[in-house]
Specification:
The complex is a heterotrimer of chains A (375), B (517) and C (319). Chain A has helices at residues 21-45, 50-61, 65-90, 98-116, 121-150, 154-174, 187-190, 215-233, 235-245, 247-252, 257-284, 289-293, 297-307, 312-332, 340-361; strands at 10-14, 206-208, 211-213, 362-366. In chain A, strand 2 (206-208) and strand 3 (211-213) form a beta hairpin. By secondary structure, chain A is mainly α. Helices cover 69% and strands 4% of the residues of chain A. In chain B, strand 4 (64-69) and strand 5 (72-74) form a beta hairpin. The longest helix of chain B is centred in the middle third of the chain and has 16 residues, at 180-195. In chain B, helix 4 (121-134) crosses helix 5 (150-163), helix 8 (237-248) packs across helix 17 (503-510) and helix 14 (417-430) packs parallel to helix 15 (447-462). Chain B is globular. By secondary structure, chain B is of the alpha/beta class. In chain B, 32% of the residues lie in helices and 26% in strands. Chain B has helices at residues 49-56, 79-84, 102-107, 121-134, 150-163, 180-195, 207-213, 237-248, 310-317, 340-346, 355-359, 366-370, 388-399, 417-430, 447-462, 474-480, 503-510; strands at residues 9-20, 23-34, 38-42, 64-69, 72-74, 87-90, 168-172, 199-204, 216-221, 224-230, 269-279, 285-295, 299-303, 325-330, 333-334, 348-351, 381-382, 385-386, 435-439, 466-470, 483-488, 491-497. Chain C has 319 residues and is mainly alpha-helical. Chain C has one domain (3-303): ABC transporter involved in vitamin B12 uptake, BtuC (Orthogonal Bundle), CATH 1.10.3470. In chain C, 71% of the residues lie in helices and 2% in strands. Chain C has helices at 3-32, 40-57, 62-90, 95-106, 111-118, 144-148, 153-171, 173-183, 185-190, 195-221, 233-243, 248-270, 277-295, 298-304, and strands spanning 132-134, 150-152. Classes of the chains: A mainly alpha (375), B alpha/beta (517), C mainly alpha (319). Chains in contact: A-B, A-C, B-C. The A-B interface holds A 16-18, 229, 232-236, 238, 241-242, 245-246, 248-249, 251-254, 371-375 and B 61-66, 75, 77, 319-320, 339-341, 344, 350, 352, 354, 357-364, 368, 372-373, 375-376, 381, 384-386, 388, 410-411, 414.
Chain lengths: 375, 517, 319
Amino acid sequence: MSAILPAIPIRLEKRTERTPSWVQAATPVGAFLFAFVIVTVILLAGGHNPLQSYNAMLQASVTSTSAISQTLVSATPLLLTGLAAAVAFRMGIWNIGGEGQLYIGAICASGVALAIGAHGIGLALPAMILAAMVGGALWAAIPGLLRAYLNANEILTSLMLNYTAGLLLDWLINDSNSYWRDTSGASAYLVAHGKTIPGAANWPAIGGGNFSVPFGFLVGLVLAALLFVLVRHTWLGYQLRVTADNPGVGRYAGMASKRNFVIVMLLSGAIAAIAGASQVGDFTHILDPTGLQSPQYGYTGIVVAALGRYNPLAVVISALLLGAITNAGINVQSATFPQSLTGVIEGIILFCVLGSEIFSRYRVRVGAEKATVAA
Amino acid sequence: MPNEPDRRVALAAYAVTKRFPGVVANDNVDFEVLGGEVHALLGENGSGKTTLCKMLTGMYQPTAGRIEVDGKSVVMHSPADAHHNGIFMVHQHFSLVERLTVAENVMLGWSLDGSRIRFKRRKAEQEVARLAEQYEMPVDAGKMIGDLSIGERQRVEILKALCRGARVLILDEPTTVLTPQEAERLFASVRGLAKAGNSVIFISHKLHEVLAVSDRVSVLRRGVMTGTVELGDHAAAVDRKELARMMVGREIELGRRQRAARAQEAATAGLEIKELVVHNDLGTLAVDRINLNVAAGEVLGVAGVAGNGQREFAEAIAGVRPRSGGEVFVGGTPVRSGRPLAALAAGMAFVPEDRMGIGLASGIDVAENLVLKSFRTGAFSRGPLIRRGRVVDNANTLLSGYELRGGPSSLVGQLSGGNAQKVLLAREMASQPKVLVIAAPTRGLDVGVTETVRKLIAEAADSGTAVVMISEDLDEVLDLADRVAVMSGGRITGIVDAEGADVEEIGLLMMGQEQAA
Amino acid sequence: MNRGLVIQLIATGIFYGTPMAIAALGELLAERSGVLNLGVEGMMLMGAVVAFWVSRDVSGPNGLVLIIAVLAGAAAAAAVSLIHAFMTITLRANQVVSGLALTIFAGATGLSSYVGDLANLGGNPGRHIMNAINVFGLKDVPILGPIIFNQPALVYISWVIAFAIYWYVNKTRQGLHLRAVGENPEAADAMGVSVTRYRYAHVLIGGALAGVGGSFYTLVISSEWTDGITSGAGWIALALVILAFWRPAGVIAGAYLFGVVSALGANLSARGVQLPPEVFSALPYVLTIAVLAIVSSGWGRGRFGAPAALGVPYARDGG
């Protein structure tokens, strides 16, 4: 009934009635305002002029078409990994293996592009996406099956597989003569790097002038809509929602909960893998271990998903928000907005949003509980 | 067998009333527990036993009246206060840490010799072993809880209380989780505890157990204490009859179903159950070779005190729980074990007693809960997509006669218990089932909804459904059923016609006395 | 392979295994109380940067400055772990999300780098470094000398910490309560043990130890600060806790095994052995997955599995 904090008499009472709509609307707004205040304080404490920093950030990410294009580049992988995390977390399945599934997706997509990319984009693009999805799904099947049939915690197994996938990536490019590695000429051995995929396999960007939308971002938008439909408007999504809400009801109605668990993992892994394919097809055009690993798109995707409260459509917005912040960090790179601020700001926003959810789940009351006096 | 209590009142409630919004859970209850006695507390679910015990252990405070320990009035605000007064309760769900040893569990939050830091394992184990021996509750103090049988775990719970100086021990339906052999051991321990001067409040549904172990019995009915009986040296049949009457005492005669209106047609096959054997979650035998036939259009009431295998019985027929043996036929077709979909296809509808636990998903809206069983038919689909319009129409149609608060889009979790039961019934009856299994149909519902539910059950039977109605409320069973099967210890101890049934006979059957063939 | 090389490998393994071991010991305490903290990497970086800052800017006798630096690193990491504790224990937020947010907040592109930027730590060598100690002058004893008697102080401190944790968890009443809180908070609460207090305390101690582990990188391994200097050690620490079945001795052994294996990988490839170093590096993770698969069901779960309440927020009303 009540949880008493050390010293502070805050009590949490579980809401039994539907959360009032004004609370639902006001919490995220309040959380963002609160985050804004904290970030401002940190900037001030760090000797920055907050106005200048915010201005630099807006200039880099929002206020021109080219800035927006840059933001979309940063948002693309986050949108895809965010959707991957959202679909799993929404169903109560804690797949934090998006990171590794992304690497596998990049490996599969670049492999396919190297093999058949010269045949033209019409064949290469779907083949890259398909290969990535299959690879990512299989990689995600490992924690999925281990959980469904051996009860091994999917948080921990999917986390471990991220590093295994990262090492596979390193090995393919740095320590082997694999199909992916550029072995032509002496310079290729001086600085190990991957083969560049045929130009015909480069994903097209949509737009004109200095405004362009990466193809991967469009894929993400379509996926967001499809996932929204899947969860809300299909019977598969219905069964997943019922099982996530109450596994007992799922059993009572004859739903196959283990099978559904694995399906969600496969789906989540496949989507995260598209993020990897997009990195290769849209941006880097080679398999680049460092470029894929250092930004930690998979983990940030979980933050994106949590910010969007695991709703696929809201994930689009949170991906754009974090994309803008990340992009500012990359492109400003100056004393007014050091890159290290990106993590700080992202973290603070997430903590504020995460913390604010308490208001929709509980009534928060301050003050000591009224003692029930025996007559 | 009962020993001589010392006639000193150890714990008492005087004129205690507890009101909740809209309910009087305990109404002017007097209850005295003597030192060194085993005092059984009997009553149906919802009769107020739990509320009374929660007041005796500091979890609730009475609205009126007083509680006395050793003749002194006390106010207890928490279980810790009750512990200080030597009052401990052993709940049905043990609070034991599986991966700690017996001794470690006993010593949680407690220090043997006042040492604040060191946990002296050897010493703790010795102390627990000593207590175990003293009270004849054998248990290996060094063993992990996870390796113990349920009976042994229960002993650990009791030892936890004894170690802290318990003088009054409340055992909440302690035998529901035990095998008969384990129950026998428990009775011996309980007698031993009483002999050593402790008091035991023994909450039970099972009359034969109460008779076997108690010195006195108090019966609660609808929040009122209907009496306290002293069991003589030889618990004679007189006591049993009196107890049965106190428990099921028929006062209100309401809404008896009009059976005459229905022609006793030649029994069309409805539900047939052959040699059904079912185990519960803990792997103990719950249903022991039951044979039953329910004709189409008949209401078979299953009476009996809760925890005698009714839940497992209902779930096994409905295909939700696998059978360990036997067969179930619906309309003459055999139904595979543990396959809810097979049962559904055969024409089975099931309203479980645990409505929000397995019957309805609380975070999903009413309309979607109403298609939980029918969404596979394709009637609500366009390809893989949900036809929301049809789902909502379906909800409106099904609920048209029910006066449901809130529309098809309200979340089930926000409905009252009565409205939730309406949704559940509407869904289950929608398929015009051949068989309806309905458990605790009106538990916790107000009078209005109760009437609706009863009417629906009658209508189902009239339309040719074979109804199995499992209820602890004997009044309700007698009002609605054509025949009453009495369940005790996982067996059907007898079947009587509801018309002109002898309540005392039913009471005896409930106590496990088998009907003369 | 000659004997000298084996000895060197083991000594190196112990050396590089130590920071992971210390961080993992901290995570072990948090997880034993039922709180999974995926923010180890972030907390280690906070410890690393603050410890380095102190070692660069505080003047005084070497030993004293180093002690202050380690403690400051511990305090900084504990401070960020407090965020996770507040989020997950008081506000009952999802532990996975909060832990990842902590790593992003404090990690390589977060607060630790920001602190490094502000204090202008990059590219500046530290002024104090923790050197190996020649314990009892036994450094040159054959075999054991280089392995055991010639390591920096934090190696010896990690042994003390491991033993202290073993003793605390198994031999004290508080340790007993800790285990109960992580296994079955309802039962612990019913017996008057404060779940909230135990969880806060152990998440904070866990954070402090992660900070100590992080400080090893900037005070011992290298005497300078670069962003993300721990390069994933925090994640290995998470694996270690599982691999050690949540037991301190196992953490130490596992950390040394990881250290030796990765040193061996580097060494073999330098000698032209055709076994990719990644195979060695992947070993801990693959091993951890295998272990999880084995200990998550049946008999193994009761003996070696994760604390039963790990990752589950506790509320009296069950919410």
